[in-house]
C-alpha cells in the first residue's frame, strides 16, 4: 500500500510548529488536542511547508532539565531535531515501516514536492495495516464459506 493511500484512508492529522515559537508556546500547543488526538511530536515547517525538523515532548523535557527556567524562552529552532528521515507519498508503507524500525524512529514526515504532506506514525500505521488485514481475512472467510458455494 502506498503512503498516499494510507494518509487518505487513515487521515492526516498532525501538529506543526514554527521554528520561532518559544518552547512555552510549543508546550501550550502540545497541550491542546487536535480533534480528539494528543501529539508527542510536531513537524517544524517554514511558511511554505518545507520541513525544517521535528520537535518532540522529549526535546522540551530535555531542555527543561538542562536549562530550567530559561528553557521557556528558548526557541523551537534551538532544540528541534534537524537530522530527520522522511518519505514520499509514493513510497510503500511497509517499506517505510521497515526503514523506521531500522533507524529506531517512531514518526516520519511525508513529503510531496519537497513540502509536508503528512506524517506516518509507526503505531498508527501498524494498527491500520492490522485492521486492513483483518478485514481481508473476514472477507475471504465469508467468500469461502458462504452458503451458496458449489463445492
TrEMBL record:
<feature type="domain" description="CBS">
    <location>
        <begin position="80"/>
        <end position="137"/>
    </location>
</feature>
<keyword id="KW-0129">CBS domain</keyword>
<dbReference type="InterPro" id="IPR046342">
    <property type="entry name" value="CBS_dom_sf"/>
</dbReference>
<dbReference type="Pfam" id="PF00571">
    <property type="entry name" value="CBS"/>
</dbReference>
<feature type="domain" description="CBS">
    <location>
        <begin position="9"/>
        <end position="71"/>
    </location>
</feature>
<protein>
    <submittedName>
        <fullName>CBS domain-containing protein</fullName>
    </submittedName>
</protein>
<dbReference type="InterPro" id="IPR051257">
    <property type="entry name" value="Diverse_CBS-Domain"/>
</dbReference>
<dbReference type="InterPro" id="IPR000644">
    <property type="entry name" value="CBS_dom"/>
</dbReference>
